[in-house]
Fold each of these.
Amino acid sequence: MRSGPIATICCFILNVVLFAQATELNVTSSSINDHDTNPSLELLVDTDDKTNSITSNDIEDVRVDDINERENFNVITINDDIQYPFNEKLLIRPLPNNNLLASFAFEMESETFIPGHDESRSDQYRHFTVFPKAIEAMLGSTSTRQLHLRFTRGFWDAESWGRLPHDGFKSGGSGVELWAIIEAGSQKEAFDQWKTLANSLSGLFCASINFIESSRTTYPVKSFQPKSTEEGLPIFGGDETKNNKLYLLRASLANEPICTENLTPLLKLLPTRGKSGISSLLDGHKVFDSMWHSLSIDVTTHCDFNTQTCKYDMDAEVDMVIHVPYTLARNEHPIPRPTPNSELRCDLTKPYDIYQCFPLPESNSLSFEVSEIFGKPIRGSNLISNNPSKVCVDIGDNHENNSWEALLKVNGSHFGTDDNCFDLENKDDYDIYISSSNTNEIGRHSEKEEDVPLYVSRSLTGYGQDRGGLRTVFTNPTNDTIRAVYFESLPWFMRLYLSTMKLESDAAGAGLDLHDVITSVHYVTAIDHKRPTHLEYTIEIPAGTSLAITCQFDKALLQFAEYPPDANHGFEIESAVVTILKPWSYQIRTSTLLLSLSTPDFSMPYNVIIITSTVLGLIYGSLYNLLVKKLVTIEEADEIASQVGLKSLITRLKKKFI
Amino acid sequence: MGALNKESYVVLGCIGIRLFVSLLFPSLQHQLDQAVEFSTPMTSFKSLYEGIYLLKNHIQVYDGGVVHHPVLLVWFFSQIPSEFLIDLLYAFIDGIIGYQLIQITKYLRKCTIPCWVVGAVYALNPLVLLSCVSRSSIIFTNLFISSALLYVLQGNILITAACIAIAGYLSVYPTLLLIPLLNMVRTTNRKVLTLVISLLTWQILLLLSYNVNGHDWNFLSATYGELITFGKVFPNLGLWWYFFVEMFDAFIPFFKAVFNLFLFSFIIPLTLRFHKQSLYAFVLCIGWIVLMKPYPTLGDSGFFLSFIPFFSPVFGYLRYPIFSSLLLLHGILLSPIFYHLWIDLGSGNSNFFYAISLVYALGLASILADLTWALLRYEYDDGKPNYKTKLTQI
């Protein structure tokens, strides 16, 4: 909330900068722009010509303007094998209650580079193709080996929708979440790099990531670990005197609003710039008008130890859950209005009259085109890699009883495939037609895949503004014992008392003790203004059991300037992250919490300073007088008073003159 | 013999009442430990218990912002195996303080009341009783202050010096009481000896803490640093908290220094002015610290008020005893209500509680000023009370 205006301003500036970059530096987009604005360029559909145009642009990008090079470029264009490491895929999956999950995935790789090479030297150059230059520069300057950024908003209804896309590893908690693996000589150095990284990302993505500071940063020890299957992350090191290590840092901003400002920069990072391929569907108005949406970016470094070269891998994902009838209704009437009488769906089995009736449940037959959902069709394939853009509709196998149907619509004709996956090969406008006669039946390839291994919900307990409790409920619906790591990072003004941690369980888990379920705890206490509470524990939840872990905390009183402008709104507490290790890996985040702190009277600073000082002065003055002054009888005092002071002066004057 | 019996009854009664209340109302401890009047981040049992928990689980106790209790206290409590023993310990300590107060009374030449009454006042003082039941760690500081006072009267300067050093180790500000205490020691040699011994004890305690805390000095900033710099802004009955909540950032360090100086400012003047009535100077200094300390509780003021029977010879000189006691009573009774209105119901704001903390401070201050006046008046009459003389100060 605090960061709103700053983010907006930064976004505005950044959009201008990005626009400038897009037109000036990377010509790929402008070439595709040309395709869009000038549809008569039929030739460009040809693969050779496409390669031609892109390659020439890339050579310009490296700024080689030698004529000999120009001649060489003609040779290059003939080469048919050039392809850029870029892949994109759209997965559409119906969810219960007429919801639809649309999952956009983009993968790209950078050119190889030799680690530890000083790129600032004049004879060095870097060649960029599909991998965004901005990201690579940022990773290089901050020695970041892995970068993970999440923008998520909304509530994933696990009980109805099932598992999160990508098993939850590509979606964050509500707000912004960032974690990175940074190579540095010490933790302090790593933190400095992290600050730089956060500030750069803040500029790039128009978000308030620059508010990440030490009081929000944790160093996870069990969660967020890089996957063990990877060959291990490289340490570039430099010289041997430096004892570099890899540091994992993580922070989250729960109250960050996610909007178009964040999507636009993401699209600008793609080689297609949202102008062709599946990314042409992504429009801020539609993405953020959804029930749940998540943008994610993951960059990892891969090194070939034989050739001593490395390259970056970047995955960008945009996932969203759309309520189809709602979106279709918005298309018809952008401004909501009451349903006309003729369109009301009344339940005539219940009492009704001409003014009111009980509504029927939503219709369970549905037919729509993807262009109706996103406002525009897919503008051709991505035109940049030899892998065509792919669209898959996950509606199970095509058999007679399947109530779902998915067809590709191109140039007015419809096509179907066996697996409901479509490769978009050329530059036509594509659309997907999806229909169902019974949306309650959702075909799946396998039922097992859809089981959610664990439900986690977290809530605040207590009523006062000076203390409260945290209660996390774990429900294991499966027949296996679940082993998971619970990660929680709480702001310093929640003073957690770990000694109050208690376990409550349902009948199935009766007799369990805290030590039976929590096997290991990593706990770092908060330091005021400097460090958050960092709690991680491994928990084992027996099959079919529901457990609740409670913990008490005190709420601190802040100094009046530390409160945000809307102090009584409360403070957003970031989601807890549960990473399931066994029986399969999965990640869930709880919803965020709203913590209300007691507030001082914000209009009082001067009054308080004045009143307290007065009381102190009063106390000091009276005691000082008592200790310092001499004790005399009233008569003596009168006598002394008559000899000194104004009164005596007047009497003496009177005596003299009268 | 009869008097002795009465004294032992009082001490036993003191222990008995505390045990009885603790055992009969087991949830009372928890309730009182949450009340701002009886617990502060520096003295609350909840925070002490967290320290014990962290210590037992081998987590750095002072590398964070939750535990502010001295190292040895946390260590000592981690050695106590059961809850009942803790209750017993607290009751027993309060009994000892009551006993010591009785013993101190015996050294007063002009005391007009029987000794056991002082003990009974302490035993029945609801502020002390509830503070004891809340398991506030302030009781340990109080114990060592009263021991220091008793032993200095007995002339045992070794124990006196050690006790005041321990009290200072437990919560910094009692160190200031060394000044009126030195005034009570007769010869200069003994004064120097007391000073040296207490410094030495203090050093030893710190070194012991350093060892117990795994060879780390971080406990210094977590305990004393936080106390002196008022690091934890929590509402309490003192004058500090709201002032620093509302203070502008740039001036906070300056005013923290000023408040500390203010706390120190009256210790020497009180000692000097009443150097002949050194015991009373000591008690007035306790009162001044209770009034001005950053994290006061009702346990502190209850302890101070327990010394008031010592002033029985000068009761006749008090100018406004009714006004002072009503002011204090007003503050004590309304503070939980106003706090509840602010924090739980939301129908009042922070100014309610702030106002009541001011009333409480004024009540304590008026008691202090009145006692000072009465002592001065007594001094003027030189032991022959003449209540009819009208005196004034110039």
Note: Residues 455-558+568-595 of chain A form a domain with the Immunoglobulin-like fold (CATH 2.60.40.740).
Amino acid sequence: MSPWLRLIVYLVAAPVVGGVLSGWDRRVSARMQSRRGPPILQPFYDVLKLWQKQNLANHPSQNYYVLFFFLLVVFTGALFFAGSDLLLVIFALTTASIFFVLGAYKASSPYSFIGAERELIQIMAYEPMVLLTAIGMYMVTKTFYIGGIANHGGLLVLALPGVFLGFVFALEIKFRKSPFDLSSSHHAHQELVRGITTEFSGRTLALIEVAHWYETVFLLGWVYLFFASSPVLGVVMALGVYVFVVLVDNVFARLKWQAALGSAWAVTAVLGFGNIVVLSLQR
Amino acid sequence: MRGLKQSPWILHYDASSCNGCDIETLACLTPIFDVERLGVLNTGNPKHADIFLVTGAVNEQSKAVIQNLYRQLPEPKVVVAVGACASSGGIFRECYNIFGGVDIVVPVDVYVPGCAARPEAIIDGVVKGLAVMEEKHAILAAVRDGLDKIIYARAEKAGALPIHAIRKVAGQTEAVLHGDDNFPALQQTLEELQKEFDKKYFFKAEVNGKVIGSVSAWLDGETVRVDGLAVHPYFEGAGVAGRLLAECEAAFRGVKRFETFIGNKSERQLKVLEEAGYKNFKTEVFTPKITWIHLRKELK
């Protein structure tokens, strides 16, 4: 498939796949709690509803930050699926997250502030591991270009088992799943009301939701990259990681931010950095 | 459009009383009743909620909370009063600290009977509320589509009722801004307003037959006194107020001086008036929390 074709398929299919995955997540979570759960298409109903609601904003400008967050998330995924530079992808993703945080700060409410602050802590927690993942992939394939990494002959995970596990750990934080749903939990009540998304409503909230769908697909695409030489295994593992994330979400309580940050960096140091040290010794 | 009825997010508030209905509401989330299968989410955030579910009677402390939460829900929204206390005050009705049911503070769309209300009844009430929400959405959509078709016209005495209502709505917003209920618009009865029609000219802005804004003006010697400028909060920022002021000026052609007054915290109104050419010339203390700002416009 040519990069342009992949790009278009991503732009069209990612929200559909991401939405279905999200609906499936809610369904499976409900089953794990011995409930029946909502229909698979529930996230689409939610977004359609939000689209028809009034958009309340403390400052109208807060919604523009979210618009940029959305555009940058889509852009990040587009870069990824077009086979661009992995480092560029990482920093585009970080920029997107920062816009989201800025939007929450702009909304000037205490809940939104603490949510934004915790989001920054979460970014701080997962970012080193994400960077090490890119470095690890470079060390094995000698390229930062995703096209090159995907066409590398062998299974990357065999050379990067530690990095892979560390990356899955970082995904837990990035998906804002328990035990790392500090900044905004998708479960009912919490002490922060709705954390970082508290002050967004209507279409802006719908955009945040759709951005998460794009993000989910893009991040699972990255998991696929570890198994790119065997496409079937790659898809199975990407979905497997998603199931794992949902399972962990349902069996863990939330951590305090100190524990979240500490554990993330410990995992990064031992699994991620350890793996890279081993790789560099082998050369 | 799909979606509106399939994803009711609920904000749940317990105003007072015995908490029985409160517990029954939470029971709806448990595996036996599992309201999430209907798309219901229990959100603690009014800005994300569609349905405001209140249990218990309203007392001195919960009154302001209910009003505040109600205002923070985005339109279209539905209020469901769950249980006897929320519907009418229930057995606490005669208590010295109880105002009564929820409907004395905010408009209620669905009443769920019971003491305590059964979870099945609560779910039924929420589903009924969805039909109301769809109706409200249709009305709002029709009004929104008519924004470019606003009609500005003289209002007659017979049409005092909607003007009275719009003044109350706008007055409530002002009262919240100032933290004081002593606004003339909130105190005025319909009869008093009808009497004003003998002396003053009334103008209204209308969309699809629904009054969304009004203003009154009368000639006092050399000066036209403008008061009662009110616009429905949903149409703020659409230029309705500015246009109503222009209507006043057009009606009193030849008069050189226009005067009006607003509360000291009504920044939006102040901005509109300043854009229309009004200038602050004196202030007057009305109550400890409200200071009137008097504005004047001189025509050349």
Note: Chain B touches chain A through 27 residues (CB under 8 Å).
Amino acid sequence: MAEPYLRVENLVKQFGPFTALGGVDLEVYPGEVHALLGDNGAGKSTLIKTLAGVHQPTSGQIYIEGKPVNFRSPRDASAAGIGTVYQDLALNQLMSVTRNFFMGRELKGPMGTLKMDEMNEIAHDEMLKIGIDFSDPTQAVGTMSGGQRQTLAIARAIHFGAKVLILDEPTSALGQKQQMGVLKTIKRVRARGDIAIIFITHNEIHSRLVGDRYTFLALGKVIGAGTSQEINNEEMRRLMAGGAEMGDLEKELAAI
Amino acid sequence: MADRSEADRLKEETWIQRLIRRPEIGSFIVMVVIIVALAIASDGKAFNALGLKNNIKIIAQYGIIAMGAAMLMIAGEFDLSIGSMIGFAGMSMALMLKWGLPFGLGEATPFMAFIITLAMTLTLGWFIGTIVVRSGLSSFIVTLAFLFFLRGTTEVAFRLINQSTQVSGLPDYKENSWFANILGGEVFGWFYDAWYWIGQRAIDGMEFPARLPGETINMLAALNINRRLEQWVTGFDARFMWFLIIAAGAYFILSRTQLGNWIYATGDDKEAARANGVPVNRVKVGLFMFTAFCATMFAACQVFDTNTSDAAKGNLMELFAIAIAVVGGTLMTGGFGSAIGVVFGAITVGLVANAVFFIPEIDGAWFRVFLGSILLAAVFANERIRKRITGGI
């Protein structure tokens, strides 16, 4: 196996007396989807916010291509090739697809004028690459479906140099069909082969459909990790439930 | 592709549908209706040589400050201090012109009075904007504070330095200072010269009695000819040119530049904008400075045109500016609006404000009844446009 693009070693994050992450290890390879699973409060959000430079780790080390890095701000992380697509997607509804795509990083010609045609073309092409043929890049994002917005945000992160794409629950709050659309998009990005994807989800079916490698978090610790071959469905369900045996849970439920 | 069919649920639009969807369309239709109605009701007087000049004068006044207010509203903030800023800037310039530069630095030229005033108002704009973005308080309340603060300061300064709340009888600086002339003088004389030239050709060969009948005077007025058969009006007020410059600048910035994209992004969802690296706070502070600039230009044109100033100048102008911005299609909640729409809004409101001079039978207070009604209608229309653009979200 190739070298992981991103490696996290014994990452600890404490907020005062509260230990949000109690020594997490993680390896993310290009061309792979690394599903990060865990219940609410397991530490998923803290982990990705630390990777995205929002939080600074209390101890532990993040490596990019083997080199230790310290992110002091989201800008640092983004410059190092970590593109985070948060649940709210950071899109502006009233603005056009193109204006959203280039928001804050507009292409400028002489005298600071926008190269609108070129920008329209790039936005269209980048979205086409991962699966949406968007006929009119001047239409407002407010008119797009949730799945299309997700695609726009992903295409934007990739265009601006993301080597690690962190997708924060991209399939939640979407209808069934659109969830499948997002999974297809993830597969297409994976097929490029040069981008590592961290896919955060609650949904074991979704993670099974696209995941190559899994890490399960519970109460700030890794309770299980492995490739899709190593972890069978039963094991997966057990880990999803925070390590409790499904059978035990059934007994507990029956006892009430 | 599954998502392809979804994109296609949006109908392909003809250019007419696209035109109707433009945010300016509502204000454009209202403007055309007002122009036609006023032309008929005033028997054409509203658009004869002098009528046009006077209408353009008030349209330009409104337009200059409304453009500042609209740009700021697009970025999601309000400025209620515009009117008081006009009073403050007018006071500052008039007092310097009458009593000399501060700290005994000698007599003030129009240029020095303007530049020092502009430096002060831009600093105030920067200060107001900084308070808003740093404190996170609503701009409504912060700028309301400055509405009182600046108006009070203006009056106090007038009384302390001038012993009276008005300055009048300043020399006519336009005659000697090119700088005063480009602010308070006349522009686009060629337009009225051409009008007069056409007028002369039109009456060529006609005989006129010594005492002209009313209809003949009206006819001559529409040809830019006065009762002595000379050229009547020689040019527009200089503020017309400044209005055009500011409006063209605003249009260019909003639709064609990176800064324009940042302004829209800031007003739409500032957290999303910030997450993408848009310097949200700098955009907002800059626009508060821009409204201060617009207020200063308004005041400067007034001072150098009339050679007077008083402490009540610009009263209520902040509310007119906001009303015009809304009538022009600017969303109260930010993120949406256009410079062209604001121009239409300024024309509409300016014409109605002036209508009483051309139709003496009507009570001038109807203007405010009209403004109130059209404002309410515009808010509803804007909300509908917003829903249509965002697909009803």
Note: The radius of gyration of chain B is 23 Å.
